[in-house]
Amino acid sequence: MVAGHLQEKKGYFYIVLNYKDECGKRKNKWISTGLSVKGNKKKAEALLIEARKNFEVPQQVDQENPLFSDFMLQWLEMMKHRIHYHANIRKALQYAFKTDMIPSNPADKVERPKKINLSAVFMTKKR
């Protein structure tokens, strides 16, 4: 259970939870109870106990060594206006290779998908 206390602010009770993140840095999480200060101290204390029991420390994403899936989601968000999946995945892996995130580009060992030739058909409206 994390440490916490009630704080009065602008006539309302707030729950303030104190915890340490993965790096050991102290953090505060403020949660509004929505309860006014007058006549609600017991209710606010009950909410504080419940919040302390149910609180989970937020997990930090490792920026230096992200998971491949997280990296691909970021990359595809940047490249969403293009539809060529193989080319985008290869570009993402090449970028990761150039920035020394991976030792080599595994897409270099994969054959490119065959191009599908589509023929255009023009439709006209008959009168």
UniProtKB/TrEMBL annotation:
<keyword id="KW-0238">DNA-binding</keyword>
<dbReference type="InterPro" id="IPR010998">
    <property type="entry name" value="Integrase_recombinase_N"/>
</dbReference>
<protein>
    <recommendedName>
        <fullName>Site-specific integrase</fullName>
    </recommendedName>
</protein>
